[in-house]
Design a protein that fits this description.
The protein has 462 residues and is of the alpha+beta class. The chain contains 17 helices and 17 strands. A 6-stranded mixed β-sheet has the order 3-2-1-4-12-13, with no helix packed on it. The chain has a 5-stranded antiparallel β-sheet with strand order 6-5-17-16-15, with helices on both faces. Strand 5 and strand 6 form a beta hairpin. The longest helix is centred in the N-terminal third of the chain and has 32 residues. It is globular and about 100 Å long.
Length: 462
């Protein structure tokens, strides 16, 4: 009798252990098959850094080294903090971020399939990784960083026709080589030097959004090019009003003149005429409700619930205030649509991946994201934006002999003086480029326009 009980208990125990092994096996399969990509891309994955091999170099569009290794585990960043928003960092205990993380497979010379094999895959990997050539121009990047140094802010410049990133700067920044040893201090700093403000900083766009409102108002047919607006200095909404920046009064203006002088009365009025669905459709048309796939991990823009807004909040949206929050990258993309016949391109950083033997393994192909507006209206708004630089608030961005378009903006915030914005386009050496600059708490869009001018000059001098 005792033997039967013992055998039964052994059987139950065996079945229990077999079930546990079955669950463990299923979990391992789940990790290897379904979670492999997510875990490989996690910045805290220390194995993803592949520090046991010599990582390939990250190069700018002219072959300048932005990051390179002379031995396994030795990573050098010649441009230091200047290029940190582009390269990211790699470390032994912290893992990696930015392109160092996203392109860890290519830089380590190991395919994703090999990495998913774990230790077995390491037997097949090369002793040196591939090089990555970017669209970024180190000279323009340096000029943007120098122009912003000492301020909190960001600057982005794109090739409007392709989406290739020419510069992506965020200040303050930090040398990627020092991140690991200074992590505690850096992560606690009030000025957030680890934040890539260009792609992840969210700000009210201020008056820069008025180019979209003008486009939307014409598309919705709530105005035309001949209507005159009485820009008296204040827009009355019930018992409250919206004033003009610095108390300006512009008199009777048409749509082009209203954009040139940044008349809040006009654009608050137009926003209220379109109200819920009209405004919402316009922001969706330009992609503000969506994210894009690619090498740049952008923070999602924050849009108000348009259908729930009263007149006051709707008017505030029309002048780039209220709940509306955007990234500098997204504003550069908006500007790019007007320089590219209404087409918005997916922004990208990597031009090509090159093997240690000099073979191009992968070459970038520009991707159209959406048709945001018509070619005719893009040309019209571009003409309006050129007038802003020639005769309006954007004069600080003007460059002799180069067609520059733009829109200034001042964005109110609860933490101090207004942020200064400038977004626009330029035709430089046969190339249409788009850009956006924000300088936190500087009080004027003219400050940001002066930074944009330095980017244009740097590109023109290359």
């Amino acid at each position: 009798m005792g033997d039967k009980i013992t055998k039964k208990q052994i059987l139950h125990c065996s079945m229990f252990l077999l079930g546990c092994f079955g669950i463990l096996f299923c979990y391992l399969v789940y990790i290897q098959v379904f979670q492999a990509d997510e875990l490989n891309d996690n910045p805290m994955n220390r194995r993803s850094a592949s520090l046991d091999i010599t990582r390939g170099a990250i190069l700018d569009c002219r072959g300048e080294q932005l990051a390179y290794s002379t031995a396994p585990g030795d990573r050098q960043y010649p441009y230091g903090a200047v290029m940190a928003p582009v390269t990211g960092y790699v470390g032994e205990s912290l893992g990696s971020s930015g392109l160092e993380n996203l392109l860890g497979d290519e830089l380590s010379g190991q395919s994703r399939q090999l990495r998913n094999l774990g230790p077995a895959g390491q037997l097949l990997q090369s002793d040196r990784g591939n090089d990555i050539r970017l669209t970024v121009d180190a000279g323009v990047q340096q000029a943007a960083y120098d122009a912003l140094e000492g301020s909190r802010g960001a600057a982005v410049m794109l090739d409007a026709a392709t989406g290739g990133v020419i510069a992506m700067v965020s200040t303050p920044s930090v040398d990627p080589a020092s991140v690991e040893k200074s992590w505690t201090e850096l992560s606690q700093r009030e000025d957030s030097p680890l934040l890539n403000r260009a792609a992840n900083g969210l700000y009210p766009p201020g008056s820069t959004i008025k180019v979209l409102i003008a486009d939307a108002a014409l598309d919705e047919k709530v105005t035309d090019l001949n209507e005159a607006f009485d820009c008296t200095g204040r827009l009355q909404i019930g018992d409250t009003y919206i004033g003009e920046s610095h108390g300006a009064v512009h008199g009777r203006v048409n749509l082009k003149e209203a954009l040139t002088h940044s008349c809040n009365y006009t654009f608050g009025t137009l926003a209220m005429r379109m109200h819920g669905s009209g405004l919402e459709d316009a922001f969706k048309r330009f992609g503000f409700a969506d994210t894009f796939a690619g090498e740049i991990q952008e923070s999602r823009c924050h849009l108000p619930k348009f259908g729930e807004l009263g007149d006051g909040d709707t008017a505030q949206t029309g002048i780039g205030q209220g709940e509306l929050l955007v990234t500098p990258l997204r504003m550069a993309m908006l500007a790019g649509a007007y320089a590219n016949g209404g087409k918005m391109m997916v922004p990208y950083l990597v031009d090509e991946v090159v093997s240690p033997q000099g073979i191009v393994i992968r070459k970038a192909s520009p991707v159209k994201w959406r048709d945001a507006t018509t070619q005719q209206r893009a040309a019209l708004i571009s003409d309006f934006m050129e007038n802003v630089v020639e005769n309006g608030t954007g004069g600080a961005a003007a460059v002799s002999g180069i067609r520059v378009t733009g829109k200034t903006g001042t964005a109110e915030n609860s933490s101090g003086a207004e942020h200064g914005w400038f977004m626009g386009t330029a035709q430089v050496q046969g190339r249409n480029v788009a850009f956006a600059v924000i300088v936190e708490n500087c009080g004027s869009g003219a400050v940001a326009a002066a930074v944009a001018r330095r980017l244009i000059l740097a590109l023109n001098g290359r």
